[in-house]
Amino acid sequence: MPAPVNKLPSRTNGGCSKSSPSDEKRAKNGFLTLCRRLITGAMDHVENTPAVTAAKTQHKPCGVGRYFLLVTYVIYAFLTARVYFAWPNLSNLLFRSNAYSWLCTTYLQEGNPDMREEIHGGKRYICEAQNSAVGNIFVTCLAFAFSFSLAAGLLLDYLGPRITAAIGQLMNALAWVLLAFGSESAQTYIAAFIFMGIGSDIGYLPLLSSANLFPGHEGLIVAILGASKSASFAVPTILDKIEAANPGIGLREVSLGYAVIGPGLCFILALILVPYKHFKPWNEFTEMERGGAYHHPIQRVNDSFASIEAHAWRDSFSSFHEGQWPLHAHDGYSGGTASEPGRKAKCYLDVPRPVPSTGPCKKALSEGVGADEEKKRDEEKQKKNGFSDADQAAEVPAIYQATRMSVATGGAGNAETLDQLAGGREEKPASFIRQFTSPYAICIVVYSIIKAIMYAFFTTAAENLLGKEVNDFMGAALPFSLFPCIVIGKVVDMVGIMPILFFLNTCITLAYGFSMIPALPTAYLSAILYICYVSFYSSQSYCFVSDTFSSSHFGKIVGTIHLIAGFLSLLKIPMQKLVVDVFHSVYYYPCLIMLVLCGVNFLVLLLLWCKKRTEPHPFWPQAARDMAKQEAEERRRRAEEKKVQKAKAKQERSKEVELRNQATDV
């Protein structure tokens, strides 16, 4: 389970973290040292407690330093994480290699024009049959990628990071080899992209436990890896430019070369630098602190929901083992209970002294006296230092910290149960069936299915909707989607997920709407809206599920949603046939159909918004719901106070102006 962390106020002792001696010895002048300094500068300092130090210095493959490992993983993710999302450039490679051009033989024999000629439109394809066949490859890849993300997590759970990563890179390498030898006689294109889709998550997920080497900064590390995954959209763009600029190089040479430099290199890195077992989080080392309660400087993951996708999958698959739900729940106290709301403002995480196993609830009760005494001493110290609970509460994000940490990091039931156990009770979450058959789950499943169809249709029809020039722009600009992703993630932290769902659905709606206007500026605007939509495409589900359902079923709920939406996105294939056979490749009416689907999603979101206004977190533990409600009321109270203060200040200013005017008149 990842370490919960929050920014610390200034402290007289131990506020600075120093690198371990082993890391210092390995540090060398040059690029790696620069990267290390940049990363260190971006981090808030965390005190080196025994548990934190043990987490930082745990054994790493080949004895390398943790910063070297991080830089290597960033390169690894960039090379292979999710290259198939850059479909405009991948489809360029396929069209130039004449993939499925044999489907146009009869079309040309009948005297129909080659649509690649400028006089007949200057398209990338010969006929609509070829265009549809190539577009169906992407839809199939997307369907298998999301449907098998559940299996990727299970592989990681049972086989460990190294073997899982190696399997993922073998799949990626096989995908590009099959792509290299695709032809009319050996039609391996669909098989190649199926392996590419499945291999992407299987190869990427094993990297995420490396965040545990940076206690207190897991969110930052996962965000860095997530940014590298988004940057991997640039790989097909690079391959496309290389192939286009060199007449002697074709799809076969490019694919085989990348299979060696990309998945091949990453396969070697997986065998050498990915561990057999996950790197342990800091809270698994707290037994080193025997002898008394220890104040940990780590409270909450300092992350944004922009990295929720990667964060959630890191540990959520342990939720498939129902018996593990309360495990590690007694590692400490985080946040506050319903009966002790002031506790949420504390800036330390109390780690209880280990006691012979008498059950987690009894253990928490037996330590209650010591914890109360320690709490009193802390409050006295805070008063001496000039800190109050109210002051510190202003620095804590206005949402129940422990539960947000648990759902954001996929720690199956960790923080959700801390307060119940600390209070001498344990609350069992609702069953998976009950949660997945609730109106919340049904609505998000419907929303995800429509979302998948709209995304797949726009991606494969972009050239016909926006033109070849704008389609090429989309391919070049997609790697920069990591920037709106970060911004949107920050906004989610501030306003919640529901406004963002409305915003994203508005983006794709406007993208379709502007694509219907035959003008170049509106085509570019449509492309930009599409890129914003893609930047947070898969994170929508993670954020909504984490904000609504129990984290003990997080993996199953998200995995099942992706499984259903992934396979039903294949409905885009018969829809493309409808476009060609019924609408004769005129995309005006298909766009109207997509706009109707956008409207349906707005209705679904409106229903969800009404439900979440009534009960924002229906399957969180009761203590968490109570705390979230209290904090929401506190936010409203503070907002009203600010409003009153502004009104008073305005009245005072107006009075001053009147007094000045009177003095001037006199």
Automatic annotation (TrEMBL):
- The answer to whether UniProt assigns keyword rRNA-binding to this entry is no
For this protein, the record's InterPro entries field holds: MFS_trans_sf, SLC43A_AATransporter
Subcellular localization: Membrane
- Ranges that cross the membrane: 67-87, 133-156, 163-182, 188-207, 258-276, 440-461, 473-492, 499-517, 523-545, 557-575, 587-609
Query: What are the entry keywords?
Result: Amino-acid transport, Membrane, Transmembrane, Transmembrane helix, Transport
| Major localisation | membrane
Any one of the GO CC terms: membrane
Region (Disordered) location? 1-25, 358-389, 631-666
Q: Where is the composition biased (Polar residues)?
A: 9-20
Membrane-topology annotation of the record: Multi-pass membrane protein
Q: Where is the composition biased (Basic and acidic residues)?
A: 372-383, 631-659
GO biological process per UniProt: amino acid transport
UniProt KW Transmembrane helix keyword:
yes
- Please indicate which superkingdom the organism of origin belongs to: Eukaryota
Which family does the record assign?
Belongs to the SLC43A transporter (TC 2.A.1.44) family.
The protein, known as = Transporter
- Organism of origin is Eimeria tenella (Coccidian parasite)
